[in-house]
Amino acid sequence: DAGITQSPRHKVTETGTPVTLRCHQTENHRYMYWYRQDPGHGLRLIHYSYGVKDTDKGEVSDGYSVSRSKTEDFLLTLESATSSQTSVYFCASRGPGDSGANVLTFGAGSRLTVL
Amino acid sequence: AQTVTQSQPEMSVQEAETVTLSCTYDTSESNYYLFWYKQPPSRQMILVIRQEAYKQQNATENRFSVNFQKAAKSFSLKISDSQLGDTAMYFCAFMKHGPSNSGYALNFGKGTSLLVTP
Predict the structure, then answer these.
(1) Which residue of B has its CA nearest to A6?
(2) Which residue from B minimizes the CA distance to A110?
(3) Among A48, A21, A45, which Cα is nearest to A35's?
(4) Are B81 and B54 in contact (CB under 8 A)?
């Protein structure tokens, strides 16, 4: 299995507090992604990265920021958590090129509850 | 923007039977990739099957096969000889094709919840 881990796996926090979710991959993949999963919405892209210090917004980026200082780590930060950000967050990664390398490999997900 | 539509929120099938999950998509791209991912109760996202749009032959992986109709923008998943372990949420997803250094993401449908009963 691809080495992609997320931490924490579960977190409960209060409205207004900052939260950081971490994604760590050992595959030396160039591209990394953060999605959120909500009932009735499938998975929606929050932010993605196409290299160290290179990031861009997805369709639901409001209220989130990301950073990538090393190839292996991609951090998702909620500066001031709100109840609407209660969700399951998935990190994914993939390498460049073709022949199967367009397949995203996913982490196990992080369940965040904002009270 | 590409949209992916899964019109069946829930489906049920008996063990050993065959079931087909529907997926349609909207794009102006001529070349792209289509995927089916499975998400069992463990929540892990697992790739089931992948199709490249420039290939006319439908992809097959053991009991899983697709019916890819490019002109109709349809990409259905057929599961043969259904097993209890196939119970999961199934997501159809689309990715644009680009240069080898493109960071295109997956666009997902909302999912179909499949229940396999004994």
Answers:
(1) B44
(2) B43
(3) A45
(4) no
pLDDT tens by residue, B32-76: 999 999 999 999 999 999 999 988 889 999 999 999 999 999 999
Which residues 37-76 in chain B show a CB within 8 A of chain A? 43-45, 47, 50
The answer to whether B33 and B95 are in contact (CB under 8 A) is yes
Those residues whose C-beta lies under 8 Å from the C-beta of residue A30, and which sit 6 or more positions away, are A50, A51, A71, A94, A95, A96, B101, B103
Task: Report the percent of chain B where pLDDT is more than 70.
Answer: 94
Q: Verify cis geometry, omega within 30 degrees of 0, for the bond prior to A8.
A: yes
Residue B27 near residue B61 (C-beta atoms within 8 A): no
Which pair of tokens denotes residue A69?
Answer: 């200082």
DSSP A79-97: SS--GGG-EEEEEEEE-SS
